[in-house]
Amino acid sequence: MTGSHTLTVENLELGYGGRTVVESLDLAVPPGKITTIVGANACGKSTLLRSMSRLLSPRSGHVLLDGKDVHRLPAKKLARTLGLLPQSPIAPEGIVVADLVGRGRHPHQRVLSRWSREDDAAVAEALAATDTTELAERSVDELSGGQRQRVWIAMALAQQTDLLLLDEPTTFLDVSHQVEVLDLLTDLNRTRGTTIVMVLHDLNLAARYADYLVAMADRRVYAEGDPAEVLTSDNVRTVFGLESRIIPDPISGKPLVLPLGRHHVLDDVLT
């Protein structure tokens, strides 16, 4: 059943070479919800997502899908349940859009099985949802950064997993397409119950679209919960080193972060 899978992280330590990026990190992703992860650059957000999808093995601790270590699950079984859109993915040279999106169907195909009507339908639906149908026969190499990003998202959607991890899915997109993509992911969550975990840089978009917000600092989860509980002036100062005021978003009612520059901070002090 969609939305019924659990994804948890227990006492995780991650690193590259001699550098520790994540340590003593615990997180339980709420099933069937949209979770967004925020934090300063190099705080370990992308590294955490890589480990949750088993692209990076932990030094210690565990990532558990339905209580089972993801590193012990058969690769194809994991890929039918959990999908990942990493940062800056690389497409095979010369591949056309429809073929790239079709690769999202590989986990659903068995040895010697033929391409099915269900595969065609899933690819067509993913292309339509990301407004890339007209690009289907074009080479991915010819696309703009924004078009290419929407095609990668289409491939992730074609995989039709119950859990979807996205690392900066709005990268390279203009404002209108950022909102379209996040609306699309919200629709996917609301209609199918897909559990979505995404890393976002934009605090206000993260707050608007999140059911559950996770703020990382000092190599671990610093605060988590409802966006209104996590996005406080004190937390923004600690996590981002930024002075701010928090007001209700007039559209969503979620917290809206108003950064204060040096001059505004000085004005506050003087008045």
TrEMBL record:
Annotated localization: Cell membrane
Keywords in alphabetical order: ATP-binding, Cell membrane, Ion transport, Iron, Iron transport, Membrane, Nucleotide-binding, Transport
A Pfam family annotated for this UniProt entry: ABC_tran
Gene Ontology BP annotations: iron ion transport
Topology versus the membrane: Peripheral membrane protein
Any one GO MF annotation of this record: ATP binding
Coiled coil (residue ranges): none
Signal peptide: none
All copies of domain ABC transporter, residue ranges: 7-243
GO cellular component, one term: plasma membrane
Protein's recorded name: ABC transporter ATP-binding protein
